[in-house]
Design brief:
InterPro entries: DUF1565, Pectin_lyas_fold, Pectin_lyase_fold/virulence. This is DUF1565 domain-containing protein. It is built from 4 helices and 38 strands. By secondary structure, it is mainly β. It folds into 2 domains: about 290 residues, no CATH class; about 160 residues, no CATH class.
Length: about 450
């Protein structure tokens, strides 16, 4: 691994052949809507489609925030191409771009695409998704008092109680708004894709209103097909490329291309692909990417996330350093944090910092290595979350600027240490026992203690 990027590609040939056959069959089962020939925008075409129809999109950049709430085949003209060899260089995939926009009428909606409700299973093929910052979801905390806690999720694609097939797409630069924007918006869960199958979460826009949903009798599938996708420079506080909550099947990302992988295990770690509480299992057959080297990483305010993370070539954010941690429980990775203020405004750091297993975060000096979430009552965020951890150490840092006022009795504005939420009766809870050493924890807030 050098400070220059090299991408290595492999291809799942059998899956592609099966998928292309399935795609051609789907054309014969419903009508075809062409964008922009039949409708000027993608959303208008989807709105006009019925279950079983195909919406096919010509090359171009489409500045839209799209919602799919029906079973359709949503594709670019890549469906007509031979995708058996070099699909990542396919012109239709590269040139059919869905770029999210800031919606002034609905600022909570910032994903390129939302797929939602009714256990629907649409197919999404052959696009480049860019510029998504996630859509606001509400987590209901029924503790001392009912609390609705908003957080952005699903930078490029947010999936809610739906089970799409997503193949042959590129996900690039999703998860955070423009660096010149004041009060940058970030996807706190799932920089590229987030999937929710959890009754405790709902859309911000759905609060306090009745939703007419065409519920499906379809059984929830045991596996999600997310094969043959390309992920580059997506960012999130947790689940850099995929975040799953509540789904208890397997998520197959085989033959996909990631920024960085552990070439020895041919896998990425649980910060890059995150299943909350480990309910879902990720299948990672023949994935590719830059090979991760070593077990010491360096972060500097003057670093660059295109660097390797070595002492001579440090990265800029702690979140990016997490994605360079090997997926090996026998190895402890030490991340050395330099002097300076690491915050959204100074380094583009995303908060909360969700610390993965077998990671030690070590500052230079607790007076000079500062993690500042810059949160307030309007833009709330903890500084650090340590959930169901093993072999985690935090030392020589200042932890400040956290705000968890809407966390009800859970608290933890600065550091939140928690076990997973048990779902089954008699389920054994794994404790979180990190080592916290030589820290200054100051200027953080929470509703009911534990600031």
């Amino acid at each position: 691994h050098t400070h220059c990027r090299v991408i290595f590609c492999r291809f799942g040939l059998v899956m592609k052949k099966v998928f292309i056959i399935f795609s051609l069959i789907s054309f014969s089962l419903g009508s075809t809507i062409n964008i922009p020939n039949d409708f000027p925008t993608i959303q208008l075409g989807i709105d006009a489609a019925n279950n079983g129809d195909t919406v096919i999109v010509a090359q171009g950049i489409y500045y839209e925030n799209i919602t799919i709430d029906k079973e359709i085949f949503f594709t670019s003209y890549a469906i007509f191409d031979n995708l058996e060899n070099g699909w990542i260089n396919n012109e239709n995939i590269q040139s059919t771009i869905i770029h999210a926009v800031s919606d002034t009428l609905n600022p909570s909606f910032g994903s390129c695409l939302v797929v939602r409700d009714g256990n629907i299973a649409p197919t999404i093929l052959g696009f480049t998704f860019m510029g998504g910052i996630g859509t606001v979801m509400i987590e209901n905390d029924n503790c001392a008092i009912p609390i609705n806690r908003p957080e952005r999720s699903g930078g490029a694609i947010l999936i809610f109680k739906a089970y799409p097939t997503i193949n042959f797409n590129r996900f690039i630069n999703n998860g955070i708004s423009n660096e010149n924007e004041r009060g940058r918006k970030v996807s706190k869960a799932g920089g590229a894709i987030a999937h929710y199958d959890d009754a405790e979460v709902e859309f911000d826009e759905d609060r306090n209103r009745l939703i007419n949903i065409n519920h499906s009798i379809r059984d929830i599938p045991e596996q999600l097909n997310i094969q043959n996708n390309y992920f580059e420079n997506n960012t999130s506080s947790d689940g850099k490329n995929f975040y799953s909550r509540g789904y208890e099947g397997s998520i197959d990302v085989s033959h996909s291309i990631f920024d960085d992988i552990d070439c020895e295990s041919n896998s990425v770690n649980n910060f890059v692909l995150k299943s909350r509480d480990d309910y879902a299992e990720f299948i990672q057959n023949e994935i590719t990417g830059n090979c991760i080297d070593g077990n010491a990483l360096y972060v500097s305010v003057d670093g660059d996330n295109n660097n390797s993370g070595s002492e001579d070539y440090p990265v800029k954010t702690i979140g990016h350093a997490f994605s360079l941690v090997k997926d090996d429980t026998t190895i402890t990775t030490t991340i050395y944090i330099g002097e300076g203020i690491f915050s959204p405004s100074t380094t583009g750091e995303q908060f909360p910092i969700s610390v993965p297993d077998n990671v030690h975060l070590i500052g230079v000096n607790r007076e000079t290595s500062i993690l500042d979430a810059e949160a307030d009552f309007i833009n709330q965020s903890r500084v650090m979350v340590i959930e169901r951890c093993e072999n985690v150490k935090i030392a020589n840092l200042t932890i400040t600027g956290g705000n968890a006022e809407d966390a009800a009795c859970y608290g933890g504005g600065g550091i939140y240490i928690c076990p997973p939420i048990p779902r089954f009766t008699g389920w054994e809870m794994t404790p979180s026992i990190p080592v916290l050493e030589n820290l200054i924890v100051t200027g953080n807030h929470a509703y009911a203690g534990g600031g």
